[in-house]
């Protein structure tokens, strides 16, 4: 029988020409508005530490700064120390309009780090609006001060995920409210509620503003489902599979994005 010959000779090291033709990795940094070309940006604390100690950038290296609303600039690190870093903001490299259609994730609060995972991955998958809601079966602390701290934490998760995923628009993060209150004034969008046993989620939902409602670990109650149906929602499921609380929203968002062509 013919045999496949394995070439065991050592591979040639990358040449100088290879290095020139390989695109350089440009690190990204979220900077809240307002940012403009010609500005010198001073970073302190965690932001400076991230550039100089985590990324180990040196003077003269490039960074892409983006403001979360569609604009991005090329910047150069002009000074770096233990305590601060200075960036010279240069030309605009991107200016994109707001994403359309809007993709709202209405997520029943999950326990612990599961909610962090949903916020992070929803940002990567292109959700434009994140609505954390308190459902009847949300097994989470009810302390308002704790919720406020959680919102601040999720905002940082969003910013980090946007830096990594190369998105130019941060999803809008809304305060926690009860599902019934959210349903009293939903956004002008098609409402889809995930519910086990309902018909399978269609492969190609229309390209229009969409809000997907996904429950906590115990799912939606009968009363919550009835309220959503009264508000105009349509129920869909994911076949026979019962996914974990942090997995279901990611599966739905990926399915919607795939149907929309990932643009």
Can you give a write-up of this model?
The chain has 263 residues and is of the alpha/beta class. Helices cover 29% and strands 25% of the residues. The chain is built from 7 helices and 12 strands. The chain has helices at residues 16-21, 45-54, 113-124, 144-165, 179-184, 222-230, 248-259; strands at residues 27-30, 40-44, 62-66, 71-80, 84-95, 103-108, 129-134, 172-173, 177-178, 190-194, 210-214, 234-236. The protein is elongated and about 60 Å long. Mean pLDDT is 89; it is low at 1-10 and 18-23.
Key descriptive features of the protein:
7 helices, alpha/beta, single chain, five-stranded mixed beta sheet, about 30% helix, elongated, about 260 residues, disordered N terminus, seven-stranded parallel beta sheet
Task: Characterize this entry briefly.
The chain has 263 residues and is α/β, with parallel strands linked by helices. Helix content is 29%, strand content 25%.
Subunit organisation of the chains: single chain
Task: State the major sheet.
Answer: 7 strands, parallel
Number of strands: 12
Q: Low-confidence stretches at least 5 residues in length (pLDDT < 50)?
A: 1-10, 18-23
Shape: elongated
Q: How widely separated are the two ends?
A: 48 Å
Please trace the helix and strand order, writing H or E for each element: HEEHEEEEHEHEEHEEHEH
Mean pLDDT, nearest integer?
89
Number of helices: 7
Helix fraction by DSSP (H/I, runs of at least 4): 25-40%
Relative strand content: 15-25%
Supply Rg. Answer: 23 Å
Query: Structural class, from helix and strand content?
Result: alpha/beta
